[in-house]
Amino acid sequence: MALAGVLGAARMKKERLRDQRILIDGAGAAGAGIAGALLRGLVRDGLSEAEARERIFITDSHGLLVEGRSHMEDYKREFAQPAALLQKNGLSPLDIGSLEAVIRAFRPTVLLGVSGQARTFPSGGDLYDLQLARALERRGHAVDLLRTPIGLD
């Protein structure tokens, strides 16, 4: 469902999936499954697997998934980003726990909220363009919205 939503949103914007920078807030089974589907979609759209991985950032309750972080489940390690990529995007190690800092540094074009924790999205009006919003549901209630961050270029 999420891959279809992102593909549809990209088409509405007259862009390709390979042009998107994706941030997934929630690294449980849903987040990992969505990340895997998006990774395969990015590769099908012409990116190498390494290039596709650089376009998918994932956060959990402890912050951004980063290589070398302690106490991280094996399935999360697959999507952990190298420290060099964080530096390339202007994100300091002190900021990896802040979803807002990750959004400002990574400048995602797609933000998917699938966290089991309520109200994890920052409320900065300059972070989101809500013209493009699809409810994602988990456990029968809307968790967050698919949002297109703006105002960060």
List the helices and strands and how they pair.
Elements: H1 2-12, E1 22-25, H2 29-44, H3 49-53, E2 56-60, E3 63-64, H4 74-77, H5 83-88, H6 99-106, E4 110-113, E5 128-138, E6 141-149
Parallel strand pairs: 1-2, 1-4
Antiparallel strand pairs: 2-3, 5-6
Task: Describe the structure using short key phrases.
153 residues; 4-stranded mixed beta sheet; disordered C terminus
Q: Would you kindly provide a brief summary of this structure?
A:
The chain is 33% helix and 23% strand.
Structure description:
With 153 residues, this protein is of the alpha/beta class. Helices cover 33% and strands 23% of the residues. The chain has helices at residues 2-12, 29-44, 49-53, 74-77, 83-88, 99-106, and strands at residues 22-25, 56-60, 63-64, 110-113, 128-138, 141-149. The strands form two sheets. The chain has a four-stranded mixed sheet, with helices on both faces. Strands 5-6 form a two-stranded antiparallel sheet. It is globular and about 35 Å long. The relative contact order is 0.19.
| Approximate strand percentage | 15-25%
Question: What is the rounded distance between the termini?
Answer: 28 Å
Derived structural class:
alpha/beta
- Characterize the main sheet: 4 strands, mixed
Strand order of the largest sheet: 3-2-1-4
SSE ordering: HEHHEEHHHEEE
Strand tally is 6
Helical segment count? 6
Oligomer state equals single chain
Rounded mean pLDDT score: 78
Q: Indicate the percent of residues in helices.
A: 25-40%
C-alpha geometry:
globular
What is the C-alpha radius of gyration, as a whole number of Å?
A: 14 Å
Uncertain stretches: 129-153
